[in-house]
Structure formats: C-alpha cells, structure tokens
Automatic annotation (TrEMBL):
It comes from Sphingobacterium athyrii. This is Thioredoxin domain-containing protein. GO terms for molecular function: antioxidant activity; oxidoreductase activity. Keywords: Cytochrome c-type biogenesis, Disulfide bond, Redox-active center, Signal. One of its GO terms (cellular component) is cell envelope. InterPro entries: AhpC/TSA (IPR000866), DUF4369 (IPR025380), Thioredoxin-like_sf (IPR036249), Thioredoxin_CS (IPR017937), Thioredoxin_domain (IPR013766), Thioredoxin_ResA/DsbE_sf (IPR050553).
C-alpha cells in the first residue's frame, strides 16, 4: 500500500505559481545507484492532458552521488526515475523548489528515498512518513484478515482495529490540510481524499487550500469532480451511459433496471483493484440469482491485458471499457479517481451506497437482499 501512495504521487505531479526563475541545487547519495543516471521529470499539465508538457533534469551519478544546479520558474512536484528502464518500482517523488535539496536513500527501496534541506521537501517528507505509518499499522491487521477465519473473534477484532486505523489516518490527513493550506503535501492529501469524505465536507477542505496549491495540475479537475460527486451522491439517480463490452457490443446501464447493480471501477494494472476481486467474486456467486449483478468499468488502455485479467480473476459478469485509460468517460461521469471505487444501485436506479470494499459488499447485500 505504501508503494501505491508513491505511485499516485509520481504520476500526478504538477506545478505551483508561475514566477521569476529561482535557483535550486540537488545533491545527495543514493546507495546502489553507482554510475547510473537519475532522470527527473516535471509535468506542467494535468495528467488527463494527452502528451503533457514535461521538463527533464538529468543527473549522472558517480559512485552513488548526484549533483546538479539550475533554475526553474515554479515550485513543482517532480518524478525521479532511477535509470532509463521504466518499471513500477524505480522511481520516487520530491519537490523542485528554491534552495539546496538533499537526496538520501537506496535504489532497493525507491519509495523510501527522501528529499530534505528545503522547506516544502522537509514538510512533504515528514507528512508522508507520518501518513505511511498508518499504512504499516493497517498492513499488520489486513495480513491477519487475509489469513484468518471470519467466524472467530480474532478476525472481528482485527477488522475493527484496521477500520480504526483507517479512520485515524483520515482524520490526520484532514487536520493536516486544515493546518497547512500552503504546503504541497496538503495538495497531495486532498487528491487522495475525494472518495473518503462527504462531498460538502471535501469541497470545504479543497476551497481552504491556498490558491498556489489549488493550481497543482493534479488538482486541476477537482472542481469538475466535485460537481460530478454531487450528481452521484447517495440518494441520487445513477447517471445513464452506454459503453462497449469485451466483444465490442454496446451495453447500456438502463438495461439492468429492475436489478441491484454494483457498478465497479477498476483496471487490470491496478493492484488494489485486483485485491478486491476475490470479494466481488464471492458476493456475485452468493447473490447473482437474487436479482443482483455486477457491471465493471475498466480504465485499461490495452484490450489483451483487460481480457486476461478478467479471465484470470474469474470475473464472470459484464465488463465494459472504451480502452481510453484514465480518460474513461464513465469514470469521469461518476467522478471516479482514483480506483478502485464502486456504486451500489437499487432496482429503481437510485444510488444507495458508494465505496464498498472487502467484505463490505457482501455485508451490504445481506442487509438489503433477503
């Protein structure tokens, strides 16, 4: 889960406040880097923009050490890639800002490489360290849940403890944003919070951010997402859409009226999504003959990967996608970002729940389907 957070940070970087170029200096030691190269990418456009504008800083290493200095017009999140080979575990994130930025870590755990020495980086490093501590606590309980017996008291105790940690993490993020509206770390937390808070509460938190932080490219579509969230709040009628299935045939949400539908948003490359699938399979098998079905919307852009994941995970229900990746129009319509996410729709077409994860799907169905 810790790595997943850094994935979000890396791919949704952005810039703050155009201004006269400021000087920066990047130096440090990354054990195991040897004489390889560190590539630093700074995206100035929203992640939804095709071929976003990207500035690149190249840092050749010598005996694990890197050094460069230059100037840049705006404080920005930077995605640092170790070596030229792209993979899911060879990058880390820091902030380009005025001052001397010091990097320290090891190539064996890029997500733990830290940047310090300048105000925004110091704050970001401290905030992420505190936030990841909650993930470590949750991982302990989730490991027990995955290997435990649901009928035993120990399982219920671990489940309650995991939820307690999750709520504590949520409160930490909210309080951090309220206390530090000018820090880029707050922008990162706001990016992660939309589906964890009621829309009115989230909107208030977003509006409290300093304008410089709100101008982050990663937050560019939040006003649109807030509007979408208001349209898909519990109690609202689920917006209708039509999208092609795995065979290229159009399928409309309206064709499922009269059934309970779990509208599931996922992708084959999304590890947290794949981790949810066993729970969905279990719920589907139990309730598929009781006026319930699942419709999955994929944010994949590769058809083969999408179909192979469906087969491998045994997802024997309707699957839809236009293979446009993050630009999926149904995900936009429902204000979904990030994934996984889902909406439970009743037979009349009304949204009755959102964001059910793990055993929560089956428990909710057990409450409403007799």
């Amino acid at each position: 889960m810790k790595t997943y957070l850094f994935l979000l940070f890396a791919f949704f970087s952005g810039a703050v406040k155009a201004q006269k170029n400021f000087p920066y200096e990047i130096s440090g030691t990354i054990d195991g880097l040897k004489n390889d190269t560190l590539y630093v990418f700074i995206h100035s456009d929203s992640p939804e923009v095709e071929n976003p504008k990207t500035d690149t800083i190249i840092l050749p290493a010598k005996n694990d050490k890197v050094f460069t200095k230059g100037s840049y017009p705006k404080t920005a999140f930077a995605y640092a890639q170790i070596g030229s080979k792209q993979s899911g575990r060879n990058f880390f994130t820091f902030i380009i800002e005025e001052g001397k930025i010091q990097l320290r870590g090891n190539v064996s755990s890029p997500e733990n490489i830290r940047a310090t020495g300048a105000p925004q980086n110091d704050a970001y490093t401290a905030a992420m360290s505190a936030d990841n501590a909650y993930y470590r606590q949750r991982d302990v309980y989730w490991t027990k849940l995955q290997s435990g017996d649901e009928s035993k008291p120990e399982y219920k105790k671990a489940e309650a403890a995991a939820k307690s940690v999750e709520q504590a993490q949520l409160k930490f993020r909210q309080q951090y944003v309220k206390e530090h509206p000018t820090l880029l770390a707050s922008g990162m937390f706001v990016y992660l919070l939309p589906d964890q808070l009621p829309v009115a509460e989230f909107e208030k938190l977003y509006l409290a951010l300093h304008d410089d932080v709100k101008s982050l490219s990663m937050l560019a579509n939040l006003p649109e997402r807030i509007a979408a969230k208001k349209n898909v709040a519990v109690g609202k009628t689920a917006p209708l859409f039509t999208m092609n299935d795995t065979e290229g045939k159009p399928v409309s949400l309206s064709s499922f009226k009269g059934k309970y539908v779990l509208l599931d948003f996922w992708a084959s490359w999304c590890a947290p999504c794949r981790a949810e699938n066993p729970y969905l399979v279990k719920a589907y098998q139990k309730y598929k003959d009781k006026n319930f079905t699942i419709v999955s919307i994929s944010s994949d852009d590769k058809g083969d990967w999408w179909r192979k994941a469906i087969e491998k995970d045994g997802l024997n229900w309707v699957h839809l996608s236009d293979l446009s990746g993050a630009k999926n129009p149904v995900a936009k319509l429902y204000g979904v970002q990030p994934i996984p996410d889902n909406f439970l729709i009743d037979p009349a077409g009304t949204i009755i729940a959102r964001g059910l994860h793990g055993e929560e799907v089956e428990k909710k169905l057990n409450e409403i389907i007799k």
